[in-house]
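User: Hey, quick favor. My workstation is busy. Could you predict this chain's structure for me?
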Amino acid sequence: MIARSTFRNVLASVRQARRWVMGRVEGVPDDVGDAIAVMVSELATNSVKHASSAFSISVDRSAEEIRVEVSDSGAGWPMMQAPGPDQPSGRGLRIVDALADDWGVRHAGGGKTVWFRIGTG
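Assistant: No problem, here it is.
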């Protein structure tokens, strides 16, 4: 089952997006839910900070895994950074890389989609 929703390009949308996704993945183990919440927050924040456009999220849930996609129409291409310890940002994709079983980026229309997969147990 795939669920989709679109969110405005405002910081409050990050929390709304996280809540919406968590409503679609109820019943997963706590550690999986926590990882999903963090990754959605990071990707939604990236869309708000860098895309200057609304963003959409899709959740595809099966018995074995959950796939989440965050899409926006902003220019640019997400790249993993290596921020120093005194830099306050730039760790989002590193966090996704550490928590997801798999993730990637693809062109989507005039923008891009960042996706991740995580096993449910």
